[in-house]
């Protein structure tokens, strides 16, 4: 199956994103020096959801999916919104700005993906 063959990096990255975004705040104490930087979490969201979009775009492109940009960015944004909705259940706080950063990361990643692979065939 093409989904299993090409989708595993996106699935693995999604597990990583879930771990990072749903971890209890006490579980992030080892990153205390990093957390002290103002708004650093927004850059983390941009990176995490940019990565998710990148791997989804790669998988959809490999599967010759129609509108792979729509699906890769759309799924990443919906994933980010859903995470923000369920975060309070894990002792985290939901933040509309985090969801916005997720969308920014998805957009940046897709733009970079298309710039790199626009003239090349992904093999």
Automatic annotation (TrEMBL):
Highest taxon above the source species: Bacteria
UniProt keywords, alphabetically: Membrane, Transmembrane, Transmembrane helix
Transmembrane stretches, start-end: 43-61, 68-90, 96-117
NCBIfam families: vanZ_1
Protein name listed in UniProt: VanZ like family protein
Organism: Flexibacter flexilis DSM 6793
